[in-house]
Amino acid sequence: MTGMIDRTELWIVILALGLGSFGLRFVFLGLVGDKAMPDWVLRHLRYTAVSVLPALVAPLVVWPGATEGEIDPPRLIAALVAVAVGLGTGRTLAAILCGFAALYGMFWLIG
Amino acid sequence: MSSTISKCFWRGFRDGLPFLLVVGPFSVLFGVVAAEAGLNVIEALSFSVVVIAGAAQFTAVQLLQDDAPTVIIILSALAINLRMAMYSATLTPHLGKAPLWQRAFVAYFLVDQSFALSAAKYEKERGWTTAQKIAYFFGTVTPICPMWYVLTVVGALIGNAIPPEYALDFALPITFLAMIAPMLRSLPHLAAAAVAMTASLVFSGLPLNLGLLVAGVLGMMTGARVELWTTAKQKEALA
């Protein structure tokens, strides 16, 4: 199991994330106005979400905390199903539902 | 004049409504994951009100549980929100003339759904005034954002009532993969995701959870580089 979260740290994270997220959202609308951004900056920004989120998830899929870092077939298969459905249908909700269905289906099969 | 502005607001409202189907469960899930991590209802709700960005909130809670250093948690979650800066830049030509207080509220409510709807609408309705565009934007967030708060509380309340057999530890990976996969519609996006995933596994031994940031940066560089190649190839093919 994971340890208790420190309360001071929690509130620092909440406030810093709130300020930082607002800053990122406000920077152009509020401060830059109509000036254009350099192309190379925009080109990198386009790939932030599809880089950071997979990087965050990959270790959780391959070495889940719930099994103490052992590869777990039901979780691995559920992850693959979620990706396949998301790629195939383009629908996030369908991918979530199918991923969970696969996870519970595998638990049920394995027992 | 005022009647057309209220019409724009309600059109935004109608367009935003279906997104409740995606945002709603996601919000409940955040409440559940936050409760599982030991956050109380007030703390979970504060996250959703102050940060109002699902993916970043999930990331922060995960890294808090992993005992990552505070600075790394903040940087990693903000890296995920870098796309908001891009949204902000995209909407600025349309909304830049609105009063500053309105732009501040737009910034606060700038989420994936309100951005996607508004950016598409502004491209189509080029004759709209700034006031009409502002009205449409706030129309899109009206059904979505209040429910984001309310359902976080619902999730946090039911969270601790869910037994471990339901494997909710895996709700976060499934949800994130389900969000990412539909975005992988081009070669640069696929390449960025593949490199970032591989790199995060390879660099998972780095201290301070730095592997995540290294992998993120490598993924972004890959995406940008492959985009340059593919557009150059397309130009060659046309020439």
From TrEMBL, chain A:
The chain crosses the membrane at residues 12-33, 45-65, 77-110. InterPro entries: Brnchd-chn_aa_trnsp_AzlD (IPR008407). It comes from the Bacteria. Pfam families: AzlD. Keywords: Membrane, Transmembrane, Transmembrane helix. This is Branched-chain amino acid transport protein.
Automatic annotation (TrEMBL), chain B:
It comes from Pseudooceanicola nitratireducens. This is Predicted branched-chain amino acid permease (Azaleucine resistance). PANTHER family: INNER MEMBRANE PROTEIN YGAZ (PTHR34979:SF1). Pfam families: AzlC. It is found in: Cell membrane. GO terms for biological process: L-valine transmembrane transport. GO terms for cellular component: plasma membrane. The chain crosses the membrane at residues 44-64, 71-89, 101-122, 134-158, 170-187, 199-221. It is a multi-pass membrane protein.
